[in-house]
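Pasting as-is:
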Amino acid sequence: MVKCWNVREPFNPEELLGKVANADDWDDLQRLVRRGDLPPQEVVTRTVMKEYAFLKTLDSQLLKIVKDSKSHRERKIVDKLL
């Protein structure tokens, strides 16, 4: 959230997880990992979707940061989290 806030782009967990579920960047990922070291696509996708599902249920402070990504009025909350 804070990274997106810093670049003034709203964080969209549905979009991020949708890209993971659709394996949009799988070819790019395969080029970055030594041949044979990357687990099967289904395993990686299932693991990421499970481990990052919490991004769909952000608490009120994180939602404030997401909504504030353009205006940067919630600097105190961001500073506190950092």
